[in-house]
């Protein structure tokens, strides 16, 4: 998807001007119902907070000559702190397959009173299934009750683009107290880091940045069998062996893959490399196999990997299994 970054100036009282911008490339994707979502961030370049930030999105055809739909949104944070930033998310209402590019522009905004950063976020358990689920607690250091407190989970790719956003249900945190939260986001295999930030009617938190390494495929087990599926304890020389891995895919999307098998001698010399190409049609398990016929007796170990077609790993390196060949 394409983008347009637009710096906008808003004149306030005489001799005062404010500046805000969309500093990074925006990111857009199609949802399961066919609508298009565009994500990005607004940067506050001022020494004072801003709010009522408007963002305009044009959903267009492939060459950008036809506007199919126009929509308006705002930042997720009501108030953007001085020199801070806030993500935004705008979705088309139409599930139109001809939408191929998105243009985003800044609209008007205003100055705001500062929200004290009296909220502390303590991240807890990170769970991965077909969604990314993060739990934790919010502590209110302020003197007032923190009403309608929301926690935002923002996922970034290697280019610092926002690729997914999750929002918790609102909670009310009493002064001086903790309260648990859960926030859920869709997964994106491009995501390598995340930010957590909280905001209520009266307070905000400082943003928390963490790395994120969620690979969408888990190679659960690998076995070596004959052609009938009977497990080998030793493999006769020149006999056919089938190396099979059970792989679990956790993302609700289609993903082509290449499954690689590498057999090495214990000295480290590579004896055999084989591959299997397939497609995950959605979350679930799949058995993948490669045939190997050893020609020399000896001790070997087997390594398995799964990559996409851009040579990006979809799984971590699976544990090696040792095989002793006897002539």
User: CATH topology of the largest domain, which one?
Assistant: Coagulation Factor XIII, Chain A, domain 1
Q: Mind telling me the CATH class of the largest domain?
A: Mainly Beta
Rg, alpha carbons: 26 Å
Instruction: Work out the count of structural domains.
Output: 3
Structural category = mainly beta
Strand fraction equals over 45%
Kindly report the average pLDDT value: 87
CATH architecture of the largest domain: Distorted Sandwich
**DSSP summary: helix tally:** 0
Number of strands: 28
Largest sheet: 5 strands, antiparallel
Cα end-to-end separation: 58 Å
Helix and strand run? EEEEEEEEEEEEEEEEEEEEEEEEEEEE
CATH superfamily of the largest domain: abc- transporter (atp binding component) like domain
The general outline is elongated
Low-confidence stretches: 1-16
Helix fraction bin: under 10%
Can you walk through the features of this model?
Helices cover 0% and strands 58% of the residues. It has strands at 8-11, 17-21, 27-30, 36-44, 50-51, 54-60, 67-74, 79-80, 85-91, 101-106, 110-111, 116-128, 131-140, 146-156, 162-167, 171-173, 178-186, 193-199, 203-205, 208-211, 217-225, 234-236, 241-249, 255-265, 270-280, 284-292, 298-307, 321-326. It has no helices and 28 strands. The chain folds into 3 domains: 8-111, Sandwich (Immunoglobulin-like), CATH 2.60.40.3230; 116-211, Immunoglobulin-like; 217-326, abc- transporter (atp binding component) like domain (Coagulation Factor XIII, Chain A, domain 1, Distorted Sandwich). The strands form 7 sheets. Strands 1, 2, 3, 4 and 9 form a 5-stranded antiparallel beta sheet that branches. Strands 14, 15, 16, 18 and 20 form a 5-stranded antiparallel beta sheet that branches. It has a 5-stranded mixed beta sheet with strand order 22-28-27-24-25, with no helix packed on it.
